Amino acid sequence: MTESGSPVANGKPMIRARGLSKFYGPFSAAKEVTFTIPQGQVAAFLGPNGAGKSTTMKMLTGFLSPSEGEAFIGDHPVESERIEASRIVGYLPENGPLYNEMTPRGLLKHVGDIRGMSSAEMSRRLDFVARQCSLKEVWTKPISKLSRGFRQRVGMAQALLHDPEVLILDEPTSGLDPNQVHEVRNLILQLGKTKTILLSTHILQEVRAVCSHVVLINKGKIVFDGSTDDMGTGEREMESKFRELTN
Fold it and tell me: HEC states along the chain?
C-alpha cells in the first residue's frame, strides 16, 4: 500500500537504462549499460569500487548526460523530460552535499519550496519524513553539528520529501556504524513496500538483507542481471559469484 492507501502494482518498468555509456577521452566509465527495474522491486546495483555505479546512477537521474544511450524514469526519457522525471524520482547521492548552516527542517523546507510544494503538502510531508527518518531530535539543530548517521538521514529525507515513486540510493550505509546501518536498512525495507528502489552498494550482506534483484557492473559493463538467489543462496556463495564475475 502507498501512504495514501492505494496498492502498488508490479511489472511496469520504472527505471530503465538503454545502452548508457559515458566516455572521458579514451576511458569508459560506463559502456552500453542496459537493465530494467520494474515497479515495486528493490534492486541492488552491485559492483567493486570504481566499477561505474555512481556514474550510471548520475545518468539515470539526469545529473550527468550520457555520451550514448538513454535513461528512463517511468515513461519519461531523462534527457528530454528531466523535470517530469525529477517529479517521480528521489535521489540520494553518495556523500550528497548539504547546507551545513541550515537545520534539517530549514533545508527540507527550502527543497520543498524549490519543488513548488503547497503549504499543506509541505507541512504533511515534513512531518512524514521527520518521523520516517527519525529526525525529530535534531530537527532544529545545525546540520554542521550532526553525526554522519543523522546527515545521511537528512539526505534520505530530502530524497523522500516529494513522495516519489522511484528511489535511487548511492551507498546509503557508507561510513555508518552498525546501529545506523541497521536503521537505514530497516528504512529501506519499509520504503520498499511502496517504492521502486535501486540501491547501489558493494556490501553483499546488505544485498541479501533488502534486495530481491541484483544488477552487477564491472569495469563499466553489466556482467550479471538476475534474482538475488541466482547470485547465491548465502553470503559465501554470493561472494564467490561476485569474485568470479569481477576478476
Answer: CCCCCCCCCCCCEEEEEEEEEEEECCEEEEEEEEEEEECCCEEEEECCCCCCHHHHHHHHHCCCCCCEEEEEECCEECCCCHHHHHCCEEEECCCCCCCCCCCHHHHHHHHHHHCCCCHHHHHHHHHHHHHHCCCHHHCCCCHHHCCHHHHHHHHHHHHHCCCCCEEEEECCCCCCCHHHHHHHHHHHHHHCCCCEEEEEECCHHHHHHHCCEEEEEECCEEEEEEEHHHHCCCHHHHHHHHHHHHC
Rounded CA-CA distance 225/190 in Å is 24
Cα separation, 67 vs 147, whole angstroms: 37
- Read off the pTM: 0.89
The per-residue pLDDT for 222 is 97
d(CA 91, CA 72): 14
97-126 pLDDT, tens digit per residue, is 789 999 999 999 999 999 999 999 999 999
What is the Cα–Cα distance from 106 to 158, expressed in whole angstroms? 11
Please state the domain extents for the chain: 1-88+164-247, 99-163
CATH homologous superfamily, domain 1-88+164-247? P-loop containing nucleotide triphosphate hydrolases (3.40.50.300)
pLDDT of 197 higher than 50: yes
